[in-house]
Write a structure and sequence with these properties.
single chain, 161 residues, mainly alpha, elongated
Amino acid sequence: MKICVVLLAFLSAVQCHQGYQARIPNGIRVPDPCNTAQFWPGVGHQKRTGGGTRNPFGVLMGDVQNQWGRSVCLADSDGDGRTNGEELGDPNCQWAMGGNPPVLSTNLSHPGICEPVNSKACCQKQTWLYCHNTVCNSAIASTTISFTMMISVIILALLQI
């Protein structure tokens, strides 16, 4: 009985992802920025598996009742310099649910996660993201350490005056 309940919960979660994935171009092919050999099924969420807090793309999609359109396509939800359409293979914003496949299906990226994930600008935007290969913590920490050291040097200099 417990196995059936767990299996049913898993299948319903997968079904939910598929429903939302079908509403965006290449929804089933959105790469995991932490491991591009895998996909990120919970495209609108901070967790790869979906559920919980939404990422910036998920917030935008929620604002428009999960409908892909020109405004969503032209937006840059994650602030990485590429529009959502460019990241999802619909650079000309022509894709429609149930219509022709998107123009591109390769060189896709995640519309809700700023990339490259280890850049200083992206690290500061998504402190919630944890990738095993990302050095975000050290990039942010080095800025903090540099600032702290600078303040310490100023204080020492003032004490010597």
